[in-house]
Automatic annotation (TrEMBL):
Coiled coil: none
Name by which UniProt lists this protein: Putative 3-methyladenine DNA glycosylase
GO biological process, one term: base-excision repair
Record keywords, A-Z: DNA damage, DNA repair, Hydrolase
GO MF annotation terms: alkylbase DNA N-glycosylase activity; DNA binding
EC nos: 3.2.2.-
Source organism per UniProt: Rhizobium sullae (Rhizobium hedysari)
Enzyme class, spelled out: hydrolase
């Protein structure tokens, strides 16, 4: 299976950004695979995502808007950042209000030296192989929460279609049986292999 919704190679801005993200989170999660994400000029190709919905018990939006999850109810293409385990940041992109896509992993392409320094490893496959590692490598924290992806420090551009694999979401206990995790088939730059 390949992502059929990918459009052009130019950065997503304005109406393009809204139309790309104002769709079902599963569709967006699939179509984000292979896209290029930069934060302050550093980043790479998105290799793994997960979809979340308001009716999904595993989602932060399940109980409605709060001060913590308010960005998740923002406009399509909004950024929602939260902390897990009291120490790791996670990056999400809002689709329709209350729905979002977690960016789980990417293949480093730009700013690799800075990523190596931040992560304390020069193993490229380990730089962004999980949502917490990705945020550490790209220096993402709550300071850039609740911003649209077409504004600094973000830049996101679609890619040509890539082969996609899907599987069960990982790292959660509620509603874990749904196949809403997506990745580039055969990629070495994943948080965990697909089974």
């Amino acid at each position: 299976m390949t992502n059929k919704g990918a459009i052009g190679k130019a950065a997503l801005t304005g109406g393009d950004l809204r139309s790309f993200f104002e769709r079902d989170a599963i569709t967006v999660a699939r179509d984000l695979i292979g896209c290029h994400l930069l934060v302050n000029g550093m980043g790479g190709r998105i290799t793994e995502t997960e979809a979340y919905f308001p009716h999904d018990e595993a989602s932060h939006s399940f109980r409605g808007p709060t001060r913590r999850n308010g960005a998740m109810f923002g406009p399509p293409g909004n950024v929602y950042i939260y902390r897990i385990y009291g120490m790791y940041w996670c990056l999400n992109f809002v689709c329709t209000p209350g729905s979002a896509v977690l960016i789980r992993a990417l293949e480093p392409e730009n700013g690799i030296a800075q990523m190596i320094e931040r992560r304390g490893t020069d193993v490229l496959t380990q730089l962004c192989s999980g949502p917490g590692k990705l945020c550490q490598a790209l220096d993402i924290d709550i300071a850039i929460n609740n911003r649209l992806l077409d504004r600094p420090p973000f830049s996101i551009s679609p890619s040509a279609p890539v082969p996609i694999i899907s599987g069960l979401r990982i790292g959660i206990t509620k509603n874990a049986e749904v196949p809403w995790r997506f990745g580039i088939q055969g990629s070495r730059y994943l948080s965990k292999p697909f089974r």
